[in-house]
Amino acid sequence: GSKIICNFLCLYCFSLSLQQVTCEESAKNYSSIPTSLSKNVTKLYLSNNNITLNDTDKKVLQLFINLTELYLNENAITVLHNNTFCNLSELTILDISSNYISTIEQAAFKGLNQLSILYLNHNKISQLDSDTITSLKKLMILSLQDNLLKYFDVKASFKLITLNGNPWNCSCGLLSLQKWLNASNVTMEHENDTLCAYPDVWNKSSIKTAPIQKADCDSRRGSIAITTPSTSAILTSSLNSSNNNIRSSPPLGKTWVFLLGVLVFVLSTSLLIFIAIKFPLWYVYLISYNHRRLKEYEPEMFDKEFTTDLSTFPSISNTNEQDSIAVFEQTHTFVLDEDGFIEDKYIDDPGLTEEV
């Protein structure tokens, strides 16, 4: 019976070895995942290329449903978008180390139900949502070495975790990670090298043993909790006052018309002032008074004009010729000086009269 069992196990292992299909496409200078690869591949090596995992790469990856190991280390990946590996339900090992990853969206690892090993080391990750990692139920090994993490809150049950090479801030924000490291059965690789970067007095302390005072963190949380209601009350009152101001303000239409009128008035006044300053000749003729020498007419011409002007007067009933002449004499009286010029009565100064 034991021989039968051994033979069965050997056949099973042999069949498994036959099912594994390895595809080695490393260092081929690919900028995207080739579409010509066999879709029956179980181990795919795409290391040391220029793959970015863009939308086209995501669509190609969905076709490798038999993948159990995927190696994308040393590429040009900067962002892990949601549902990038959603169709790789058989994947157990994912290596995306030594890239330029700075952002990992919350559902980036969705669908990786069998993933047990995840390499994220040597990237530029500064923040990692705990739910992103907690969703990987079968994850046993996580490497976050050499990133830009200052805080990390995780509630998963790993067997091995690597955290060295990050600028850890050993303050209240790191207290939950420190509790988890000490309370769980996880093994932190390179523990003696996983040190605090802040504050300076603890820069040689391990993040697992740094003297973060729980009492200080609780007192800070209490003070924040006390001040929060007052802050919300202030915000509520300010919102109410702003609403009242909006209600009491005049209608938008009337205000707009008033502002338009003020704007037109200001512009027109400014234009007039500008014209007065830049073009002063237009008002010089209005203000200045120039004396002009009157023309001297010949006696014959004067008589003709006199006769013509007299003929234009309307006839007045019940009056004789003498009355008409008398009226004209009173109306048209000219005083000739000795020099032949007509005297200008507007000039009162005798000196000025003599000069003329």
The helix content is 25-40%
Within the largest sheet, what's the order of strands?
A: 1-2-3-5-7-8-9-11
Structural class: alpha/beta
Report the biggest beta sheet as strand number plus sense, adding barrel if it closes.
8 strands, parallel
Protein name: LRRCT domain-containing protein
Pfam families: LRR19-TM, LRR_8
GO molecular function, one term: signaling receptor activity
GO biological process, one term: positive regulation of non-canonical NF-kappaB signal transduction
Keywords for this entry:
356 residues; two-stranded parallel sheet; eight-stranded parallel β-sheet; alpha/beta; 10 helices; disordered C terminus; 9% strand
How would you describe what is shown here?
The chain is an alpha/beta fold and 356 residues long. 39% of the residues lie in helices and 9% in strands. The protein is built from 10 helices and 12 strands. Strands 1-2-3-5-7-8-9-11 form an 8-stranded parallel sheet, with no helix packed on it. β2, α2 and β3 form a beta-alpha-beta unit. The chain is flat. The chain starts with a helix and ends with a helix.
Which helices and strands, and how do they pair?
Layout: H1 2-19, E1 22-24, E2 43-45, H2 55-61, E3 69-71, E4 79-80, E5 93-95, E6 103-104, E7 117-119, H3 130-134, E8 141-143, E9 160-162, E10 168-169, H4 175-183, E11 187-189, E12 196-198, H5 214-248, H6 252-278, H7 281-287, H8 299-311, H9 321-331, H10 350-355
Parallel strand pairs: 1-2, 2-3, 3-5, 4-6, 5-7, 7-8, 8-9, 9-11, 10-12
